[in-house]
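Okay, can you check this protein?
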Amino acid sequence: MALIFVHGITVRRERFDRLLKSVVNGFHETGCGLAVSGCYWGDLGRSPSYTGVSIPGFSAGVRGIGMAEAVQREAPLMTLLVEEPLAELADLRDGEEFTLETAGFRPLPPEVVQRNEALRGAETPVQNRILDSAVTFADPDNPIDADQIITLIHGVFSVAARADRRLDAQALCAPMIRAITAGLCGIGSSADDLFTEFRWNQAAGEVEAALNDRLGGQRGIFSDLGSTALTAALRHGLRNRVMPGLSLFLGDVLSWFRNREAILNRVEEAVIAAGPDEPLVLLGHSLGGVIAFEYSAQATRDIELLATVGSQVGLFGELGVLHASAQSATGNLAAPDRVRSWCNLYDPDDALSFLAAPVFDAVTDIELDTRAPFPASHSEYWNLADTYQKLTAAVTEL
């Protein structure tokens, strides 16, 4: 059985080659035996001369955004922390300033002295461990400089040392893990690109192991103090990081509508190259899911499985902008006639993934948890074994 992978937004040739290799390896590890090949169309996307100069910044006229209630899930919190990694820890600051005490006016509380000694003893080993492992999670297009890692970790430990005296080193472990992971993502991902090869879960695992080994804490525990006051991150706004990538997404979408026939011809070439007699699986990520759907609607051969991942097919169908979107007897849109089975994988924390089942007939929505904040969640699918396992299960059910 042949599988053709159609990439999504903001992917260009070198990145596509690495991404396709990851997809091939991911399916190989499931033992499904699919012959995986790819369809590249990125050179037909938005203009390479785009620089984002039309996007208003938040450097002047900061907008005050209130926060009505506590953040209850980790991914939305991490989305904020990618913009302002120290926000949660800064909000854990002790009610009484330690500066005067460290200057000799008053002695530090014994529990704070003990905690901060533990933090000082952990800082260098944590730095060294993250430095050694950075190559395993960094985006090859955006390598993380060692000095940036050292500066980030030192800043996190310094702010942690000013935390509320009721919080020991173990209690600070979770917000420190979040701060370092978010900081690594921020310095290891391009601010103008929604598709990144930064491996969020790999980085989080390395940071978690490094801090837990030294401080004995647990990842994923929210502090009642820290989860309710991330005003600093909100005031800076997510537009600094998210908006440039969204504009690139819009650029590729507009290019898709402009170059639709040329892009679909690329898919046809990949299908022919896969062999005319092979059962066919089409796998599309993001806008690639829309492309795979549109190809399926005009295909002259059967498609055993259409798999859309982190895709906007449901959105485009609901908006009525798909070329092939005939209404069925149920009132929903009909799936392409040539498609035997269709599954749509999405993560609720990925702002560019949409449900398809409420809009189309004969499609199954499958929820994934990438455990990453947006925009990292939009590309983290391909770093998760769960993605390949669910897709392999869909193939074996045919």
User: Anything to note?
Assistant: The chain has two domains: 2-48+255-396, 74-236. The beta strands are 2-6, 35-39, 280-285, 303-309, 339-346, 364-367.
